[in-house]
Amino acid sequence: xxxxxxxxxxxxxxxxxxxxxxxxxxxxxxxxxxxxxxxxxxxxxxxxxxxxxxxxxxxxxxxxxxxxxxxxxxxxxxxxxxxxxxxxxxxxxxxxxxxxxxxxxxxxxxxxxxxxxxxxxxxxxxxxxxxxxxxxxxxxxxxxxxxxxxxxxxxxxxxxxxxxxxxxxxxxxxxxxxxxxxxxxxxxxxxxx
Length: 193
Ligand SMILES: O=P(O)(O)OC[C@H]1O[C@H](OP(=O)(O)OP(=O)(O)O)[C@H](O)[C@@H]1O
Ligand SMILES: O=c1[nH]c(=O)c2nc[nH]c2[nH]1
Hints:
Elements: H1 2-11, E1 13-15, E2 19-21, H2 32-45, E3 53-57, H3 61-69, E4 77-80, E5 92-99, E6 104-111, E7 120-128, H4 132-144, E8 147-157, H5 162-168, E9 173-182, E10 189-191
Parallel strand pairs: 3-4, 3-7, 7-8, 8-9
Antiparallel strand pairs: 1-2, 5-6, 9-10
1-O-pyrophosphono-5-O-phosphono-alpha-D-ribofuranose (PRP) binds near residues 100, 102, 125, 126 and 128.
């Protein structure tokens, strides 16, 4: 998606430790009109697939997934929680995810009420790096007996390999911008062609 690539070039900054900071529009301050155009792109890519639910993971995926849902017939959006809460009751699917930005493991929890074998799921997230977050969500779908129809990602860091491993396993991963390399010294960002 050219618009997203240009926005990353214009407003993104490359940090040490393979971190791309795009919090001016994607995952801190939110450009909702951009989210809407991203949702339209995924709707085009996944047209023809039956999607009954969108699944994402807190925190940064939630806003993007909710706007995307408007392009998939307003299907419900479920987000995996990263902490137990007195607000979570009943039976849960639980997995574990190593957080790239927080550098520690979190439980990922989805109530059994909101995901089941009848569901055809689109996974949505802001970033795909090593693929840990998606592995947690896929694990939860497997526990639920739900079908993963596809994966929509805003920014994939291709050089970290998580996306290509998932593609090799047969998942339909649609990343709107794939960063092939980025240099914290010069700030240069190269996208996959
Ligand atoms: O492919 P991966 O290596 O798993 O990296 C991608 C994940 O990392 C971020 O989550 P994180 O827990 O760092 O922060 P968040 O609370 O901003 O979502 C991002 O939102 C993705 O969920
Ligand atoms: O803002 C972010 N920048 C990143 O480089 C990244 N990788 C995973 N998750 C991320 N979030």
